[in-house]
Automatic annotation (TrEMBL):
InterPro entries named in the record: Meiotic_Spo11, Spo11/TopoVI_A, Spo11/TopoVI_A_sf, TOPRIM_Topo6A/Spo11
Gene Ontology biological process terms, A to Z: meiotic DNA double-strand break formation; meiotic DNA double-strand break processing; reciprocal meiotic recombination
Stated name of the protein: Topoisomerase 6 subunit A/Spo11 TOPRIM domain-containing protein
Any one GO CC term of the record: nuclear chromosome
GO molecular function, one term: DNA binding
Residues annotated as transmembrane: none
Keyword annotations of the record: Nucleus
Every Topoisomerase 6 subunit A/Spo11 TOPRIM domain range: 1-95
């Protein structure tokens, strides 16, 4: 369906949710994080090679943090900060002040 490719693109993409730098900034314990699988490593390497990443320095930095740590997280890890951190602090601040890429 390459003839339809121009209909399948989006003009802009936002990286919403938990960022690798958030994990560092919030001092999330390493034992609460999920180690990368080989498939995760391969996918990350593939994403880092995509041409549009070079034009997105903030995305590139987040991917570099992820590659260096070889760890990922579910958004529920924020309950390790406090039980209501996700709903009372993290999401309201993301929505009000941005913080997505």
């Amino acid at each position: 369906m390459s003839f339809e490719a121009h209909h399948l693109t989006v003009p802009s993409v936002k990286w919403l949710g938990l960022l690798p730098s958030d994990l560092e900034r919030l001092n999330i314990r390493r034992d609460a994080l999920i180690p990368f699988t080989k498939q995760d490593e391969n996918k990350l390497a593939s994403i880092q090679k995509r041409p549009y990443i070079a034009c997105q320095p903030l995305w590139k930095k987040e991917l570099e943090i992820m590659a260096a740590s070889k760890l990922k997280a579910e958004i529920q890890v924020l309950t390790s900060v406090s039980a209501d951190y996700l709903s009372r602090v993290y999401l309201p601040n993301k929505l009000q002040f941005g913080g997505w890429l």
